[in-house]
Amino acid sequence: MREIYLDRGRAESFGAVAADYDAYRPSYPDGLISDLVELAPARALDVACGTGKVAVALVACGIAVLGVEIDPHMAAVARSHGLIVEEGKFETWGDQGRTFDLITCGQGWHWIDPGVGGEKAARLLNPGGTLALFWNRDRFDDDVQAELNQVYETCAPQLAEHDRGHGDDPVVAELRETGKFAAVETRSYKWLATLTTEQLIGRTGTYSDHLALPEQTRTALFGAMREVLDARGGSVTVHFKTYTIFARTPE
């Protein structure tokens, strides 16, 4: 069972950087959004909606979306984008009998109690509804990655393995074990982006494990990252893979 969700200090640290999160965290690839829209949901719930990275894209496609977000600062930014957001922890949030055709969660399901999340999502979904969970993962070109790995080894060795690979996904197993879903499948969407030094450091500064670093360590780390990135002209190509889990309830 996943235990990271128990680290509530990290799980609820994003409000302190809500504006940077909105400015620097990437959205999601068109292919994923298109696949979600093709499900033709009349109503969607966006769990741990943050500043609205997922919901904004879905609303732009004509889908009615309700967001649930635990942090008031993140929720306020989402509302500034015109989204409807209710504040609360998903596990204890009062659904008031409402049901949905689609439930999404971008970059947040690992903070949800695995003993509650899947069961609750299945209960809130209409027959044939879909739970879509997704995470953006990325790498740089090998030479850039090697230089940045060395920066971490020197400045923040406790995070030097932050780009470790992913083996069997415990979330997939958790959802299957609920017995509430007719199918649980995974899909990945690959895409590229060119990001500047400021964008990359700004984004990295919103990661919960980096927020937990001592300020002196974080300052040294970002300074060394800036040297590497600026030496390469102030921008680099980022290879993204948006890993997605689709879980469908029985018709």
Structural features, described:
With 251 residues, the protein is of the alpha/beta class. The chain has helices spanning 8-11, 18-24, 30-38, 53-60, 72-80, 117-124, 142-155, 170-178, 197-204, 208-211, 215-230, and strands at residues 43-47, 64-69, 84-87, 100-106, 125-140, 183-196, 235-248. It has a 7-stranded mixed sheet. The relative contact order is 0.17. The model has no long low-confidence stretch (mean pLDDT 95).
Please outline the helices and strands.
Blueprint lengths: L7 H4 L6 H7 L5 H9 L4 E5 L5 H8 L3 E6 L2 H9 L3 E4 L12 E7 L10 H8 E16 L1 H14 L14 H9 L4 E14 H8 L3 H4 L3 H16 L4 E14 L3
Parallel strand pairs: 1-2, 1-4, 2-3, 4-5
Antiparallel strand pairs: 5-7, 6-7
Helix pairs in contact: 2-9, 7-11
* CA-based gyration radius: 18 Å
Poorly predicted sequence stretches spanning 5 or more consecutive residues: none
Shape: globular
Oligomer: single chain
- How would you write the strand order of the largest sheet? 3-2-1-4-5-7-6
- Beta-strand share of residues: 25-35%
Termini separation comes to 28 Å
How many beta strands in the DSSP annotation?
7
* Helix proportion range: 25-40%
- Mean pLDDT, rounded to whole units? 95
Task: Sum up the structure in keywords.
single chain; 251 residues; alpha/beta; 7 strands; 38% helix
Quick recap:
The protein is of the alpha/beta class. 38% of the residues lie in helices and 26% in strands.
